[in-house]
Amino acid sequence: MTQKLRWGVMGCAQIATGSVMPAIVDSETGMIKAIASRGIEKSTAVAAEFGVEKAYGSYEELLADSEIDAVYIPLPNHLHREWVLRAAEAGKHVLCEKPIALSSQEAGEMVEACNKAGVHLAEAYMYRHHPRIAELRAIIAAGEIGALRSIRGTFTYNDAADNTNIRFKSAWGGGSLFDVGCYPLSAARLLFDAEPEAVTVQAIFSPEHDNVDMMASGLVEFPGGVSLIFDCGMWAYNRQLLEILGTEGRIEVPMPFNAREEDAEFFVYTGDGTRRVEATGANPYVRQVDDFAATVFEGKRFIASEDPVYNMRLIEACLASAKRRERVSLL
């Protein structure tokens, strides 16, 4: 019998009820033991929907539950630090939604606290767990498109009319860089297998949306003269694309951050022609849950590291560049 990680879910956000909780239910290694909300009525309703035995009206009660091994935190960005620290203190492993914090300093505190408590901390970039990412990296490593030269990443959608959206609250970590820009930024770090040296970013800061960045585009410089060119937005036409350019070819990845079972294909262009690759399909949220459990039970992955800190350093630099309208060095 597969060992089961007993999860507590801290909040009833749509990402929890629509994606992560169903993934835990469908996973081989997880079970939802409890859900908490700031109101018992809401958590009770969600618990009933998912067949969860315990519902709490506070996060403190969930953390005090000795039958919970790990917590998933889908709370607004500005609450991540507090509840990751509290979870670590309670001895719970933590899967926290991206972006993990409001700053690299906060992220560093969270990583340090989890390391000190001997619990695992993971930032929930689910796309990294889709089999397509490993298959892309294998093609790059095999040299099929030659030496890497540039990556282009886009992730935009238009939700500007929804004035109640928490993504439009500056003090809560709102803005397009925090919400969707983090995807191409983290993907470039992963695919280049390097840390950036400098960024130059331009953004639209909207007074009617609490002055968060509603659209941003920029250049991220990596060692050796290679770069990421990206744009992200919450006030632009819906689209996603990742293009990986090499000296001998390129790879085009449609829907790079939301692929599941049926839409995992990508295309390799070289001098020999175009090759359509039907990558292995999967639910990346389920894979993320199972990978996290493998870390807890077998030490395979996800041990608290500096990766969330580097992600936040890059986002911070992009915001600073956009606000100051100048190139920002990360060296």
UniProtKB/TrEMBL annotation:
Pfam families, sorted: GFO_IDH_MocA, GFO_IDH_MocA_C3
Protein family according to the UniProt entry: Belongs to the Gfo/Idh/MocA family.
Gene3D superfamilies: Dihydrodipicolinate Reductase, domain 2, NAD(P)-binding Rossmann-like Domain
Assigned keywords, A-Z: Oxidoreductase
Domain GFO/IDH/MocA-like oxidoreductase: 134-252
GO molecular function terms listed in the Swiss-Prot or TrEMBL record: nucleotide binding; oxidoreductase activity
Organism: Paenibacillus monticola
Domain Gfo/Idh/MocA-like oxidoreductase N-terminal: 5-123
Name of the protein this chain belongs to: Gfo/Idh/MocA family oxidoreductase
